Amino acid sequence: MPVVKLGPAGPHLEYLPEPDAQRLAETLVAFANGDGGTVVLGLDERGRPAEGLLGEQMEDALRAALVACRPPIRTEWEQIETPWGAAAAIHVPRSSELHALDDGRVLIRSGRENRPLSGDQVRQLATGKSSGDFEMEEVPGAELADLDPDIIKDYIARREEKQGRQIKLPQERLLRQIGALSVNGKPTVAGVLLFGYEPQFFLPQSGLTFVRFSGTELRGPGGLPGYSRRDEVTGPLAQIIERTWGILMQEMRVEAVVKGLRREERTEYPTIAVREALINAVCHRDYRLAGRRIEVRMFDDRLEVHSPGGLPGYITLDNIVEEHFSRNPRIVNGLYHWNYIEELGLGIDKMIEAMTQAGHPQPTFRATPQSFTVILENRRSAAPAAPEAWQSSMNERQLRALQYIRDNGRITSREYQELCPGVTAETLRLDMVDLIERGVVMKVGDKRGTYYILK
Fold it and tell me: Where do the CATH 3.30.950.30 domains begin and end in the chain?
């Protein structure tokens, strides 16, 4: 059995070292209402097994947890081999139904916590779920022969490389498992979009339009068309991402930056932010909306990525940083295993981090019932003062936090508390307020989704 490398608890992973039926029920409901996830039984996050724990205790806890879920939740057991020994894992797929606990609470996974939803958020989530299975519908007229075997082969190879083990399922069964084929063996919307020879033949709205404007407005002098380049990008989703990325790299300005004795090239926009904005649009657009394609508009002062369809599920502009919900989970999962997505649920976070760390303003997000837009501006703020100017007046805790951010890219309040055991939460909060006021770090997100990055 190959060894499975597990990461820290997060949006799609939970550790349950003790047989806590209540905690397990809450996690099952939260995963099923979101994008699914895995519960590792009998181990804590550091890989330490619970002492004296019997398999029967875990089975009893699972049975009690499932009884507390309304309606019942489908789960899959698997024996996995971890670096610390064998363990059991419960896989919870995303559900098309809205699930609650027997006490009436509707939960969603938020970071590493299970958070209850308000009444309005429950209604939004229910609406999103009722329309969220379009990607699993059969495409009229499409047959298995309309899927490109070379693209499927490439997907399987990259997925095996990412997982570190060979896929032994027959190809057609694998395609059914990932939602590319229906139970009748017909290509689904997700299957055609991921693996089709010509997805736009069946779904014309699935392409992308790139436009390069001359100046900062949609129109040129005298009301004439203001664009200097226009491309219609077609193909399966992976090819749309790659082809659009190639166009963007051609159009982005590059400047030389001298650091010490080395000369480096810096693109007009951070490449991570641009790629995340593009992938986010491809993954989360509403493919039900016919006649509307993703639009990427490049101006002299900004880059705009317009995605058809409003925000999915219970997501709003207020919680978009700390909450994550996929309109098209099978498309997202496919691109994740294809290595187009490094870590599920962190696209918005990465955009914000990349832009601010490059000296640009934070991305602007605009949402209407029919569209979602990401705007990246290419103006840069003045360079910050040299670290020596302010490090001498910091306390030891703050210096430790800054080193942690340099090593890991960010720090949360919980991680800061783990760095400084025995220090009150209020003292640590004031430390961060001081760093923010000095312009050293920047706060991203809100409430439990808050973290800090270097400014």
Answer: 13-118
